[in-house]
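cron nightly-structures :: item 1 of 1
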Amino acid sequence: MRFGYQKGYWIFRFNGKQVFVGVNEVLCILAGIILFFAMEVSGRDDPLKEGYIRRNEYGKGEEEIVLIAEGIGDANQAMEVVFPVEERRYTKEQTKKELEALTGRLPDLILGENPSTDQVRTKLNLIPKDSKTGFHILWSSAPAGLIGYDGEIYGESIIQDQGQLVNLTAEVSDGYGTSKQISIPIQVFPPLLSEEERQKKELIEEIVRREKQNRTEEGFYLPSEYKGGALSYRSRDETDSVWLLLIGPVLAILMRARSASQEKQLKKDREKKLLLDYSEVVSKLQIFLGAGMTIRTAWERIVLDYQKLQERGEEKRPAYEEMLQTYYQIRSGTAEGKAYGEFGRRCMLQPYLKLAGLLEQNRRTGTKNLRYLLQAEMTDAFEQRKNFARRQGEEAATKLLIPLFLMLGVVMVIVVVPAFLTFF
């Protein structure tokens, strides 16, 4: 097997066959693989995989944890659970030294999604700190056990139709010993939970219980099992990094498709320019031959005139570039007839193949009426150029229809919408 490189492609040759591999495509695939392994390495540092929750340090505020618990029930199902984790609390000695002045007021609404205080089934909005003033708020309830410190309702044991009256007390403190108690009567009813919600609630209760047991510690461990089944955890924001492996191949395919599309467009543009230049080339050949020049001399004159235009910065034209290559072939010793034939095959268009055939035939048989044949060919070439220009105009007009239809749609909306509004 042999290996080579050419114009952005690695070329592998074996058993007489060639395989082209784009350098950019290989780089895209390698980039996808690197991203995959980077995500895998970064995901190994997730503390949730060990069932450990790290709380905020002193004074950083409460944090709400959202995670996916796996292994719930007999089917080992996964479900999303949400629970609060308070900041790391000070001991009594630290509290006396670190407590700061707080100001604030109690919010007017604590109902959350409940319709009124006479019918409370879902979590209450018991904020631990007023965001406007910084006052701390401590909640308590009597009888205890029906409303959690975070506002969660634990009313499973309450009779459904009767409910239970709970006196909810909020103690607002400014940090200097000044406090005020506000009592709010709450009629608590049992929540309407599905089996999945019940399992989720029990899991959250266990997590909250563990969280309460060691609030002076740096963190705590999540439960490792639920009703005999093993539990595992992962962050809700954790993403599956396997899809990163697909980025490279997809980008490689898109780049290959883009290269193919560009090559196709370049070929199409080249054919258009060749067709536009054909009538001009035939016309110049016919004029120079009519002036008494030979085919080779006329060819050389056309090429030299084109080179002068290139020195002035004119745009390159594919037809004249091919004629220039043919001119160099003839000067290097290639037979004229063969050079003209290769010229037609490189252009790959029927008019140029016909012109090359006429010139090649003239070299072999010495056709005397070449001027008249070129005159007829020039007439056909100009007719083809007019038809080509007409097609180009029709294509441009067709493309203009799209914005016209869009404008028509806008006008229709402007006219129709007010008319409908008058009826409704």
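cron nightly-structures :: done
Residues 39 and 241 are 6 Å apart (CA to CA).
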